[in-house]
């Protein structure tokens, strides 16, 4: 597991550590491929749900790297954008 980065708290002047699911930390890792755990935390769903979506063909695009599943962040965001487009004028 990667060490948790520390940041300077402007209010108290003390260092605090960011949790692994912090938006600041996630933004720094956006160039890398994401693991199912990364994507599940980002979407707020269990990892098991991602596996079910993959099986049904309804989730974000997933790629196999050896025997591991990996996601491209831009594809996750594109899938998420497609899920949120609906008509409110009904």
UniProtKB/TrEMBL annotation:
<feature type="compositionally biased region" description="Polar residues">
    <location>
        <begin position="1"/>
        <end position="20"/>
    </location>
</feature>
<feature type="region of interest" description="Disordered">
    <location>
        <begin position="1"/>
        <end position="29"/>
    </location>
</feature>
<dbReference type="Pfam" id="PF12728">
    <property type="entry name" value="HTH_17"/>
</dbReference>
<dbReference type="InterPro" id="IPR036388">
    <property type="entry name" value="WH-like_DNA-bd_sf"/>
</dbReference>
<protein>
    <recommendedName>
        <fullName>Helix-turn-helix domain-containing protein</fullName>
    </recommendedName>
</protein>
<dbReference type="InterPro" id="IPR041657">
    <property type="entry name" value="HTH_17"/>
</dbReference>
<feature type="domain" description="Helix-turn-helix">
    <location>
        <begin position="35"/>
        <end position="83"/>
    </location>
</feature>
<dbReference type="InterPro" id="IPR009061">
    <property type="entry name" value="DNA-bd_dom_put_sf"/>
</dbReference>
């Amino acid at each position: 597991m990667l060490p948790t980065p520390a940041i300077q708290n402007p209010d108290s002047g003390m260092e605090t550590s960011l949790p692994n699911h912090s938006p600041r930390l996630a933004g720094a890792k956006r160039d890398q491929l994401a693991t199912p755990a990364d994507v599940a935390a980002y979407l707020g769903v269990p990892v098991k749900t991602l596996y079910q979506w993959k099986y049904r063909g309804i989730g974000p695009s997933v790629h196999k790297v050896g025997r591991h599943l990996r996601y491209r962040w831009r594809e996750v965001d594109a899938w998420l954008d497609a899920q949120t487009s609906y008509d409110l004028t009904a």
